[in-house]
Amino acid sequence: MIPITLYFIVGAVLFAIGTTIVLVRRNVLFVLMGIELILNAASINFVGASQGDYIKLSGQMMTLLIIVIAACEAVVALAIIMVLFKKAGSVDLMELKKLKEF
To answer: Which of 6, 44, 51, 83 could form a disulfide with 11 if both were Cys (CB 3.0 to 4.6 A apart)?
Structure first.
């Protein structure tokens, strides 16, 4: 059996990587991938927290909910990114500030 602390360490590392990507990168696609990493880190932490509970499956149910929400978020965000690319010709966040004029 995997120790619970290992789940939390992996979740914290994934959360730190995702947060760094969101704060540093200027490409919208990389920001979307950073958000997905943050959601996966939360899922790992929920599964790790539910390892001590053999009767309650609340951590796994919450993880399923996060996976469904992440899939919906990815579909909507990619559709918005496609429209922005058609409109502005770029997916760079700094260049998308020009869209305020439209």
So the answer is: 44
Distance of CA 5 to the CA centre of its chain: 22
Q: For residue 28, give every residue at least 6 positions away whose Cβ sits within 8 Å of its Cβ, in sequence order, or none.
A: 81, 84, 91, 92, 93, 96
Domains of the chain: 4-101 (1.10.287.3510)
Does the global pTM surpass 0.70? Answer: yes
pLDDT (tens digit, 9 = 90+) per residue, 46-55? 988 888 766 5
d(CA 35, CA 49): 21
Paired residues of 92 in beta bridges: 27
